[in-house]
Amino acid sequence: QKEVEQDPGPLSVPEGAIVSLNCTYSNSAFQYFMWYRQYSRKGPELLMYTYSSGNKEDGRFTAQVDKSSKYISLFIRDSQPSDSATYLCAMSAGGNTGKLIFGQGTTLQVKP
Amino acid sequence: SQTIHQWPATLVQPVGSPLSLECTVEGTSNPNLYWYRQAAGRGLQLLFYSVGIGQISSEVPQNLSASRPQDRQFILSSKKLLLSDSGFYLCAWSVKGPRRTETQYFGPGTRLLVL
């Protein structure tokens, strides 16, 4: 069993839809949770960072963490064609090395 | 502000040839540095990480090696490339110490095709 599981998709939605991207994990030591967005042929860029359980909102994006269920989500409201990308979840137990464990990534296409 | 550079952006190399990819970080000191490989349609595979000059940790056995000759320079090398070395290579950095946020910041990547 992988430490982090993420549905690879692809996920295709119409413009304006609400998108839900999800990851599950098995290591209860994970405390720090991130979402990265990666456009085709580009490096991943940090989208959201959360430390505790609960919700964190940034514009059209909401990150949700449920440590009891070992489940994290990223919601995108009013999705736009420019949101078409691969979304990677990442998490860490902390420590001096700063190593992250990544999900496989979910490819999202938002159709105009 | 901090920036991270990788070069070259694209590289086509024959099997058996050597490889050298370079990554430099500006605007920060004493970062943790990482090399990842991303195969087409797949997730990120951590290859090496470094917590300081000359300190390299390997995550998977492979045909590659890494070096950190300076604080903000990270080099990925191979003496003889294999077909399976093809992929998208990403360098990343993170803050170390009490100000760390456990996040990593990625460079633009190098696309390597071994023929």
Morphology of chain A: globular
Largest interface: A-B, 26 and 27 residues
Structural classification of chain B: mainly beta
Low-confidence stretches of chain A: none
Oligomer: heterodimer
> Cα distance, first to last residue of chain A?
37 Å
Give the overall average pLDDT of chain A: 93
Count all strands of chain A and give the number: 11
Determine the fraction of residues in helical runs of chain B and give it as a percent range: under 10%
**Average pLDDT level of chain B:** 92
Give the fraction of residues assigned to helices of chain A: under 10%
Structural class call of chain A reads mainly beta
Q: Report how far the terminal alpha carbons of chain B are from each other.
A: 38 Å
Radius of gyration of chain B: 14 Å
Largest sheet of chain A: 6 strands, mixed
Give the total of beta strands of chain B.
11
Strand content of chain B: over 45%
* Radius of gyration of chain A, CA atoms, in whole angstroms: 14 Å
Protein model, in words:
- The complex is a heterodimer of chains A (112) and B (115).
- By secondary structure, chain A is mainly beta.
- Helix content of chain A is 0%, strand content 54%.
- In chain A, the strands form two sheets. In chain A, strands 2, 4, 5, 9, 10 and 11 form a six-stranded mixed sheet that branches. Chain A has a five-stranded antiparallel sheet with strand order 1-3-8-7-6, with no helix packed on it.
- The model of chain A has no long low-confidence stretch (mean pLDDT 93).
- By secondary structure, chain B is mainly β.
- Chain B is globular.
- The mean pLDDT of chain B is 92.
- Chain B is 0% helix and 56% strand.
- In chain B, strands 2, 4, 5, 6, 9, 10 and 11 form a seven-stranded mixed sheet that branches.
- Chain B has strands at residues 3-7, 10-13, 19-26, 32-38, 44-52, 55-58, 65-70, 73-78, 87-94, 105-106, 110-114.
- Chains A and B meet through strand 4, strand 5 and strand 9 of A and strand 5, strand 9 and strand 10 of B.
